[in-house]
Each structure stands twice: as C-alpha cells, then as structure tokens.
Amino acid sequence: PMETRRPRSSPDLRIAFSARWLLLVAAVAPVGFIAWISLLTYRDAPFWDEFATTLKFLSDLHDSASWGESLRLFAAASDQHCMITTRLITAGIYLLTGKINFIALAAIGHLAIACACVVLAWQPRQLNARFFYGALLGLLIFQLQHFENQILSYAAIDHYQVVLWVAVSLALLGLGGRLAGVAAGAAAVAAVFTVAQGLAVLSLIHI
C-alpha cells in the first residue's frame, strides 16, 4: 500500500510553555535591572552638553520677546541636530512645573526605548516569535547600559526617543492603508526632528 504523507507542519516557531516563561524573564529582567541602576545613579543635575543645550535653550526661551523668536529657538540646529521633539518635551516640563527635571528627561528617554522594543517585538504575528523578539530586544537594552544613553539624561532623551519614532513609523507603514501611511510619515518627521540619525528612516521608507 502507498504511504500517506503527513502534511508539513507550519513553519511557526514552536516553543514549550516553560520556555515562554524563560523568554519573558529574559525580556523583563534587563529592563528592571537598568531601571534599578538608574534610580541609584541618576541625579537631578545637568551634565556636559546640557549646559549648552537644555539650560541655554530654556534661558533663551524665557527671555524671548516674540512668538517668532521662540519658534526659531525650537527649530535652531545644535551641531548637526534639530531637536524639536526634545525641546518640546523640555519646554513642556518647564511650563508645567516651573523648573527642569533631568531625571524626568532620562526617564522619558528610557520609556521611549522600552516602548520601541514593545513595538518591534509585537510585529511578528505568532505569539512565540513575539516572546523571542522581546527577549532579544530586552537583552540588547542590557548591553546598552554601558554607554552614555543609560548614564546621561540628554543622551537618553534624544538617542532613545529617535529609535521609538523610527520603530513606530516602520510598524505603521507595514500596516498599509492611507491613514497608517500618514501616521507613519508623521512619526518619520518626528524622528528627523529629534536627532540627525532620524534621517535614516526616510531611506527605509523609500525601500
């Protein structure tokens, strides 16, 4: 008699239930560790570039004599960067509280990279693949703790925020449709006007 061939199993990533918990721990534990280290090390004080960027921007904004002058301050280039999104966040904190909180800037930056990881990990349709991507991205954050993005608030708010905007833009673009395309374009513009590296998203969208 002829052998009946079994249908091929789907190429979905197969992971045991216990392994899902392991991947979940691998995704969450680095984030918790970095948050704990940040709580221990961050100080509400300016560092390095923040004297010439954050503090000078707020001082000039406070002394600006017209709306036009204020808008020029938001759009002014700092080195090769045009940091409109960061300046909007900075000005918002200052207007709401009457002061600037550098720990808040760092926290917003850290939340941005965490949200970017969630956006990227959610892209695969299969649940197991999402666990795998989440673990990989969580461990990547752990590796990044050794660089200035995790240590200095001005680096976190800029360099992590741009990753979020790029991730959101590409995720929306993958959805298709006019509304998603418009939203993807808006996120791409936000990336461009966060730091100069955001220009890379335009090339990715074109591809």
Written account of the structure:
The protein is mainly α and 207 residues long. It is 71% helix and 0% strand. It contains 10 helices and no strands. Helix 5 packs parallel to helix 8. The protein is globular and about 65 Å long.
Entry summary:
With 207 residues, the chain is mainly alpha-helical. Helices cover 71% and strands 0% of the residues.
Gyration radius, in Å: 21 Å
User: Could you spell the SSE succession in H and E letters?
Assistant: HHHHHHHHHH
| Global shape | globular
How many H/I helices? Answer: 10
Helix content: over 70%
Q: What's the end-to-end separation, in Å? A: 53 Å
Query: Structural class, from helix and strand content?
Result: mainly alpha
Outline the low-pLDDT stretches: none
> For the report, how would you describe the main beta sheet?
none
Strand content bin: under 5%
Instruction: Tally the beta strands.
Output: 0
* Overall pLDDT: 78
Highlighted features:
207 residues; mainly alpha; 71% helix
Q: What is the fold's blueprint, element by element?
A:
Blueprint: H1 17-41, H2 51-63, H3 67-75, H4 84-97, H5 102-121, H6 127-144, H7 148-151, H8 153-175, H9 178-192, H10 200-206
